[in-house]
Design a protein that fits this description.
The protein has 210 residues and is an alpha+beta fold. The protein contains three helices and 13 strands. It folds into two domains: 24-124 and 172-197, Immunoglobulin-like (Sandwich), CATH 2.60.40; 125-170, Ribosomal Protein L24e, Chain: T.
């Protein structure tokens, strides 16, 4: 029984090491500081446009003297459907404080706390030529087993003339921000830049929108 427990522990450690060291294609990790004067992330999180779902892992330490509750908001246009989760221990041994997340607000942050957020994002499909997010009135086209949406005939024509130029531009492109705001002052205490980068920069082909 003891041998099985040791083997299980070693497998868990190996799996954790692999998960921590491997960079998944649809995920990014950002490290930052939560500060009363406004903290920033060490670097922007860059994601390749075109995936259906993304996961952003944001870890942060609370710098004294900040303490309070922080509202977490994913800012940017077009709006991205997302869900925010706060990582916690599987078994709470009481070795450290664990702030709680309710309604996208982290409650009870204190100096020297460390948190880890998981933000699962599902961006809308976009016109691969002009970058417009999908809405009523768009029409779909299939090309080599992949579905695309277009806002107007001119964009669809541009795509048909050079599909290789636009094939990977079905997702949002641009800069977003995972922002943490103190609930009492509404001042930002941490900003995490998030960038979606496509193969080809969106143009301005639209001339006769539906």
């Amino acid at each position: 029984m003891k041998a099985k427990s040791i083997l299980f522990f070693l497998l868990a450690v190996a799996a954790s090491f692999f998960a921590a060291s491997y960079r998944w294609g649809d995920s990014a990790h950002s490290i930052g500081l939560i500060k009363a004067s406004g903290g920033t992330a060490r670097h922007a999180s860059v994601l390749a446009s075109g995936e259906g779902t993304y996961t952003l892992i944001a870890t942060a330490a609370v710098i004294p003297p900040y303490r309070g509750d922080a509202r977490v908001v994913l800012e940017g246009e077009p709006r991205i459907d997302h869900a925010i989760y706060l990582s916690g221990p599987v078994v709470d041994l009481g070795l450290r404080r664990n702030p709680k997340l309710r309604d996208n607000v982290i409650h009870g942050l204190q100096p020297r706390d460390r948190i880890a957020l998981w933000v699962v994002m599902k961006p809308p499909m976009t016109d691969p030529v002009c970058g417009a997010p999908y809405r009523d009135g768009f029409f779909g086209v299939s090309h080599e087993g992949r579905d695309y949406v277009f806002c107007c005939r001119r964009c669809a024509q541009a795509f048909s003339l050079d599909p290789e130029r636009y094939w990977n531009n079905i997702g949002v492109r641009g800069r977003y921000q995972l922002a943490f705001y103190d609930t009492k002052t509404n001042r930002p205490v941490l900003s995490v830049p998030v960038e979606f980068q496509g193969k080809e920069k969106a143009g301005d082909e639209c001339g006769d929108r539906h």
